[in-house]
């Protein structure tokens, strides 16, 4: 049965970050994910999770100067020290917060990069990430991003990303299947869900093309949810979208999948 996790970096953003945990629980969610919790202590985040009986499904490793356009370090020559520090901090947070996986971003390499050199650096850095995470019994998620929203990102397509993951020879590294990015770059979503069964460890959803609620746009999410159910994927799907208006006002589509029901906190 379909389960959902609220992405607190994109939902309930009219509230301060720590207050979004309360809002998510009150809206009926029992799981959350978010990008970067590092402006807050582990203790602060843990208290909000426990207060609201929320599980945490995913965090991102620090990705550098986000406002300045950085999106991680793994494929960027000369950035291995920053990558190692980023992974170390993410592992500390995830392990303490009971989060099973971290998303390690690959970085902006541009269109004119030396692909072979970047791949070699990426493999070395992601093996380090996998080993550090594995020592804490954590998984690593690797996500291709569409090149319309994130021009120059190192990974944009599902199959080439999976090929690189296989080169790592690490059992705790998985594809992060973001349906929004995958539809823009590759399409054929239902068949892709079926074909890549077992390769992805985390899934995120949003409407296409505008990245609003998944009840709008070109995709039929009712059928997509059935496809994930049919292949036995039972982890919460991350709701990583920009609400058209207020978050709560746009959650009508999610009501059948929220076990607590709105206002249950």
From TrEMBL:
Gene Ontology biological-process entries: glyoxylate metabolic process
Record's keyword annotation contains Isomerase: yes
Domain of life: Bacteria
UniProt-annotated catalytic positions: 143, 240
GO molecular function: hydroxypyruvate isomerase activity
Keywords tagged on the record: Isomerase
Domain (Xylose isomerase-like TIM barrel): residue spans on this chain: 21-254
Keyword Nucleotidyltransferase: no
Pfam families: AP_endonuc_2
Cross-referenced InterPro entries: HPT_OtnI_isomerases (IPR053398), HyI-like (IPR026040), Sugar_Epim/Isomerase (IPR050417), Xyl_isomerase-like_sf (IPR036237), Xyl_isomerase-like_TIM-brl (IPR013022)
Family, similarity comment: Belongs to the hyi family.
NCBIfam families for this protein: OxoTetrIsom
Protein name: Xylose isomerase-like TIM barrel domain-containing protein
Annotated source species: Puniceibacterium antarcticum
Organismal lineage: Bacteria, Pseudomonadati, Pseudomonadota, Alphaproteobacteria, Rhodobacterales
């Amino acid at each position: 049965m379909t389960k959902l996790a609220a992405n607190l970096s994109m939902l309930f953003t009219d509230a301060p970050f720590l207050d979004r945990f309360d809002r998510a629980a009150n809206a009926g969610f029992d799981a959350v994910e978010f990008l970067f919790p590092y402006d807050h202590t582990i203790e602060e985040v843990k208290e909000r999770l426990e207060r609201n009986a929320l599980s945490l499904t995913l965090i991102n490793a620090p990705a550098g100067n986000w406002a300045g356009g950085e999106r991680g370090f793994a494929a960027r020559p000369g950035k291995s020290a920053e990558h190692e520090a980023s992974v170390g901090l993410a592992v500390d947070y995830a392990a303490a917060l009971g989060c099973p996986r971290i998303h390690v971003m690959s970085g902006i390499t541009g269109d004119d990069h030396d692909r072979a050199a970047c791949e070699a650096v990426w493999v070395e850095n992601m093996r380090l990430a996998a080993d550090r995470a594995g020592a804490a019994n954590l998984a690593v998620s690797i996500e291709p991003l569409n090149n319309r929203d994130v021009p120059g990102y190192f990974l944009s397509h599902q199959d080439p990303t999976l090929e690189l993951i296989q080169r790592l020879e690490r059992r705790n590294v998985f594809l992060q299947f973001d349906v929004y990015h995958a539809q823009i770059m590759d399409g054929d979503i239902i068949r892709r869900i079926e074909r890549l069964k077992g390769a992805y460890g985390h899934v995120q959803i949003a409407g296409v093309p505008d990245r609003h609620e998944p009840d709008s746009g070109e995709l039929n999410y009712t059928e997509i949810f059935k496809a994930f159910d049919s292949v036995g994927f039972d982890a919460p799907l991350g709701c990583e979208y920009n609400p058209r208006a207020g978050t709560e006002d746009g959650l009508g589509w999610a009501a059948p999948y929220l076990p607590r029901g709105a206002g249950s906190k």
